[in-house]
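Exercise 7.
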Amino acid sequence: MSGDAGPGDGAERSPTHGAGDLDELWGAGTPDGFRRLWAPHRMAYIAGETGTGQAEGGGCPLCRIPTLDDDEGLLLHRGERVYAVLNLHPYNPGHLMAVPYRHVAGLDELDVDESAELVAVTQQAVRALRAVAAPHGFNVGINLGHVAGGSLADHLHQHVVPRWGGDANFITVVGQTKVIPQLLAETRQRLAGAWRAP
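Solution. The predicted structure, written as tokens, is:
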């Protein structure tokens, strides 16, 4: 890239000029050889902004979701005792949760009807995901307690995560970053359209 002008007259060339992939760098900072995947939308989650799972006034977001309309709340299904909602911070596209309306933390706190509906809604979720996304498998489970990985451990919910061969590639393992190729609103529309009763 010899002969190219830098940003502004008289700008100095970076010390990495001519170093393979990093032909020229301009501006402040010391080059480190890493590429960047910029995801500024994640800052809303870090900052706890509205719509990121933090309920206003410190309330439970899983209790608040059913008060929203389906599109805003990313709701897929409203049952008598349990609803299904897309995870706002998915592990994979289509990652959803089956959630009892009643605010309980323990699996053993559900009554028989809630337990039965939790399983039925989970089965519906698997069928809907198979219909629209053809995953190779699923992770289905509940994190009981904060130490078990439950970020919203005070309100029981069951995760349904579709999996595909190779979905945990280098960017996930090394960069601790997931690439989600579809907007949540589009995923919600497709799954809600495929949802059907048992």
